[in-house]
Predict the structure.
Amino acid sequence: MRRVVVTGIGLVTALGATVKETWEAMLAGKDGISDITSFDTSRYKVHRACEVKKLNFNGHTITKKPFTVYDCLLASAREALEDSGLNGYELLRRDRVGVSVGTLAGELSLFEQRLRNHHLNKADGFDMEVALSYPPMTLSTQLAEEFHMEGPNIILINACSSGNHAICWAFDAIREGKVDAMIVGGSDVVPQTEFTHFHNLKSLAPEKCQPFDKNRQGLVVGAGAGVLILESMEMAHRRDAKMYAEVKGYGLSSDGYHMTAPHPSGEGPVRAMEVALASAGLSYRDIDYISAHGTGTPLNDKMETLALQTVFREMAQDIPCSSVKSMIGHTMGAASAIESIICCIAIKEGAIPPTINYETKDPECNLDCVPNQARECKTNYALNNSFAFGGNNASVVFGRTHLPAERGSVI
Amino acid sequence: MTQPKGAGQADVRKRVAITGIGIVSPLGIGRQEFWTNLVEGRSGIAPIASIDVTSYPCKLAAEVKGFNPADYLGDKGLKYLTKGTKFLTSAIKMALEDARLNTNGHFPEHAGVIIGSALGNYSQTTDYTYNIFKLGPEKLLPMASFDVALNSSINFASVFFKLKGPSRTISSGFTSSMDAIGNAFNLIRSGRDNLLIAGGVEQLSLDSYLIFLLQGLLSGSNNSGPELSRPFGRYRNGFVLGEGGYVVILEELESARSRGAKIYGEVVGYGTTYIGSNRFSLEEKISKVQRVMELALEDGALSVGSLDLIYANGNSSKLLDMIEARAIKGLSVDASKKALVTSVKPLAGECYGAAGAMQVVSCVLAMENSLVPPIANLEDPDPECNLNLVTKKALQIDIRSAMVNSLDPAGNGSCLVLKNSS
């Protein structure tokens, strides 16, 4: 079995068009929320979201909106690939580099635009451009075409854990030697359809996202994309690549309980985290930082706390566990890819981002959620949680690539 | 808590058995009806009834008929479920019963589900979009979005059967369900999982119809002649759409044996790679498709000469059938024995994301019955598709190993290799 490392990252969020911009804004505790501009919200009770304001293409800043799912994906994939230097590797076998992408539903924005302008019949939403971009698969094939990668090409549709699923799929393929590297990511924008869905389910917070706060009111929808370059450690060494972190293991589970509500005691998330730790060969005591699913909905945050208390026992209150959704919103299919990148940066930089908008302690969320202030924190192992609608759970463990000798638990 | 053995840590390689089959198809509900109609060549293709196509040129599709979901799911809550969710959940129920597994959620601890679907319930997502503009967002009740996500069929199934293992939806275009079965196979083989429900689901909708029609992929579109699916035929002119839910139960072989399960066969190899690039020349595409088959054979440690049967992608597309035929020819050029080649699509339609699973269950049934159904409508084979094609009537033959192909002209080629364990 080969070891798998992260050698490049790219981010597009409401806080910035690059990894650097997003990370610096997160350390400063900035909130990416603003009034929605991509559609008219006058018939809704909520008017704010974390939309992407600009993209970076070849050093140029583009502010033309609205951006599509693929725009965001492409911009972050380009940043990640450049960061990794993979394209400069002379011995690269392009048939052994694949693409896996997580998304909520693919490219709804074009169809929405057509119908918004002209909506007598549903068929008015279709034209050739829509037909060619509607199947979600086109997101990953366009990336493969753009960067000339010829390995397996996969889209994972697992609601809000899609990004982690894409990482898990790529991790297995590299570990088993089927491919040498994968472009892995997640991307979503704020389509009116999904906004309406969450709005009418009364899942949205009106003004701000407050994970783990006693007065939290719900999630804030966000747009964004995160792309990681995953490759075998062997190839990364051979081409002398910089390594952010190693993917140590993962766990998947289902609640098997309800279509929209999480299991109240979090038994599905507990299984996902425990399997992730076991597959990484780690104990719960080894984890230094947890990137929480932390959506800011009353149910999720209470359930997640219970699940963390079950898995992390006496350590549950002490391990820093923050939710960047407080700053960039819930980016749905992209969320766990973005948050995996945050884990990698935390390991590399020795700092962890805060949970902002934290005002009132909730005894039912008795965690160290890194309230409002980023913190220096040496992180050898980080856990990224994603617990999607429908009880679809995926947890991934990342670890430092060059560990001090005393950490003997590494396999 | 019990952890899955190894959780994929060590370099284990378990064997993977197929222990159950579930089918909701245009050829019938359940494996017996499906198989009988397949062997007897009774077509599921008929004028489209579920959507209004009066203003469009293509009139035929293979739709699921005579299906009563209440037989499998009970009456409760059916009105909130989409057609696709009913297909999938009923097919899973049949497969679990076929595998003699309890369907009330008392499975081996980590049973999960991996389903491939290119479009899934996406047409209900866009119905919802349409209603936002037509009715206004405030008119849409929370229950209106109960089952309208592309992957909500899979979520519903995991809730309905109280599954505790992974639930995953793979959407890789036409190869979606082949990639789902291949992924489930890998996860069991590596020791991470013990029992996975794998397969595919698609439903005919205005959306799927228009997407393929606009791209000129349907038989009879662009004035290309009569609507008829005839894979590898000289005058083939595109595919006829289908729909359905096709599911297999994959189990670690030893644990399947120890519970006395019936073993249909084993999955022994899987390969996938990107074949659909615009940059590839025709010759490159052919060699890519050949490469996918080689990858699957290498993965299963089998030689091409040991194959008795190839369930081809063969969907009646002008270009893709020729590419596949030449790839199969290239693959077996040095083999002393040439495998038989057949396709199920001229009777059951091209159900895109679910097609790989449809061909896998067809292949498993062929192995079980030692019988290869013919390629329907193939009166006049294309000389460019010069293969050992089964035409006119079913052939009795012992099938020890077989290969199943799934190809996306703009995406992956994926291939699965099966072995008869009896």
